[in-house]
Amino acid sequence: MYNMKEYLKKIPHAIKRLFVLVKEVSRETKMPAYLVGGFPRDLILGAMDWDLDITVEGDGVKFAEVLAGKLGAALIKHERFRTATVILDHRVKVDIATTRKEIYPFSASLPLVSPGSLREDLFRRDFTINAMAFGLSESMDWELIDIFGGKDDLAAGKIRVLHDLSFKDDPTRILRAVRFKQRYNFKIEPKTLCLLKEAVNSGLLEKVNPHRTRDELILMLKERNPSAQLKQLSALGALSFISDKLRPGKLTYDLFKSVHKEIIWFMQNFPFHRQFEAWLIYFAALLRPLALPEIKKVARRLGLSKKEEQKIVSCRKINQRLIRRLKNRHITPAEIFGLLKPLSYETVILLRSVSHDNAFRKHIADFLKIYNGVRLCISGDDLFRLGVLPGPRYQKILNKVLAARLNGKVKSRQEELALIGRILMHKNGEEKCPDMSALKKR
Ligand code: ATP
Questions:
Q1: Which stretches of the chain score pLDDT less than 50?
Q2: Which of ligand 1's atoms lies nearest the C-alpha of 176?
Q3: pLDDT at 433 (0 to 100)
Q4: pLDDT score, position 2
Q5: Based on the domain organization, do 138 and 13 belong to the same domain?
Q6: At which of 218, 241, 264 does a domain end?
Q7: Is the same domain home to 369 and 388?
């Protein structure tokens, strides 16, 4: 458990300075300020978390303006929600809000929000462990405000709602309860579990705006062990908000295990590759048993982007034919390149997860390690100089030269140019694929 003095010694200079300035702004504006949400929870658990939520009794946006001015930091205002975000640097952002109360006119609706006391602001939160605050003003000097017993629940490892209507008001808390339970290896307190099951069985998750459940689902899939998260949801019968046809079994969970290993392998071997979305691979693995039209329906209902939908669809299209071709020991580098280049990294990682065959896995690794980085010495400029008129023919010719380069048939700029010469000289002006038979026979 935490020791505030020790903790404050360890925090980075930029954050220490921020806290000093918050205290200063609080004094000057006469608005008490509190650190709330995940930060107090993680601080008490001894973890560092630089997503800071500050809530202010008074006017959060005004407070943020003064603070950003003192810090010389960027400020994004969300006037409609009376909140603002101060961006300290790429690692640290501070959300500043005004203390408020929320009333849910009906189950799963958006709340009606109005200014409220600190107590009301803490009471509107999901679980006791997320409903604590540290007073940042001079007079409070890091005093812990723990009205609902969050510190004891943290010590006992319990997820507990603040009142009986909590899941009815906001069923996304079902997903949050599972997420925090798995993350901290906590237990959902018995009464809370009863209320949660009641909410699941009444189909409340299906009543929420799907964009909100999607956001919470993505957060679950970004946790350290997405498989455990989904297993728990499945055990609770809480996956129907994605699709009522989902029945993940051993095959899916085995696939998750392989996906986990492949993601680690990919990150260790290609740390400089462009970003990929690990959560999307798990989601695609979860949806794989569903038919393609159902997958598209899920993606659209959850409001995934076109790009995300395409990636998930392409993961679903991984078929035995593709797997068989990649298992073939005699496949050429150019053929491997041709099969894998059009696929996203997410699809390639999922693909590598579906078979333990050595040749298959090596072919995919070779694509990522070698073939994907192969560049030609020649370019369109050379074709232009050789008198080829710009057009789709350029790409065709360059593809042929690339295939020859991948297969080791040309190794230098000179040889690439010579190959272009042969392609252009070919009768009828039709380009012919370079002869790769020698390589295939090897
Ligand atoms: P994480 O470590 O995953 O970022 P967090 O607790 O910081 O966890 P956020 O989603 O950033 O999670 O939310 C910040 C705080 O806002 C929470 O700690 C909680 O107090 C409150 N909160 C967030 N979502 C809800 C919700 N659906 N219902 C009630 N309170 C919520």
A1: 427-442
A2: 27
A3: 45
A4: 60
A5: yes
A6: 241
A7: no
In testing the pocket of ligand 1, which one of 126, 127, 214 has its CB within 8 Å of the most ligand atoms? 126
Check which CATH number belongs to the domain holding 237 and give it: 1.10.110.30
Cβ burial 287-313 (10 Å sphere, 16+ → b, else e):
bbbbeeebbbebbeebebeeebbebbb
Do residue 282 and residue 358 come from a single domain?
Answer: yes
Domain that holds residue 177: 158-241
How many angstroms is it from 37 CA to the middle of ligand 1? 6
Identify the domain boundary among 373, 398, 416.
Answer: 373
Instruction: Name the residue at shortest CA distance from atom 9 of ligand 1.
Output: 38
Q: Which two tokens stand for residue 275?
A: 């970003």
Cα 152 to Cα 148: distance, rounded to the nearest angstrom? 9
CATH number at residue 278: 1.10.3090.10
Question: What is the CB < 6 Å shell around ligand 1?
Answer: 37-38, 49, 51, 53, 125-126, 130-131, 170, 172-173, 176
- Closest Cα to atom 12 of ligand 1: 38
Shared-domain flag, residues 7 and 118:
yes
**Which residue type sits at 254?**
D
Residues 138 and 274 in one domain: no
Query: pTM here?
Result: 0.89
Distance between Cα 189 and ligand 1 center (Å): 18
CA-nearest residue, atom 16 of ligand 1: 37
Query: In which element (H, E) is residue 144 found?
Result: strand 144-145
Considering the domain architecture, whether residues 283 and 196 belong to the same structural domain is answered as no
Q: Which residues have a Cβ under 8 Å from the Cβ of 161 and sit 6 or more positions away?
A: 126, 127, 128, 167, 173, 177, 192, 195
Nearest CA among 9, 91, 84 for reference residue 49: 91
Whether residues 176 and 106 share a domain: the answer is no
* pLDDT on residue 274: 67
pLDDT at 233: 96
Per-residue pLDDT at 273? 73
pLDDT at 275: 79
Ligand 1 geometric centre to CA of 39 (Å): 10
321 with 393, same domain? no
**414, burial (CB in 10 Å: exposed 0-12, middle 13-18, buried 19+):** exposed
Q: Length of the chain in residues, anyone? A: 442
CATH number at residue 85: 3.30.460.10
Q: What's the total number of domains in the chain?
A: 4
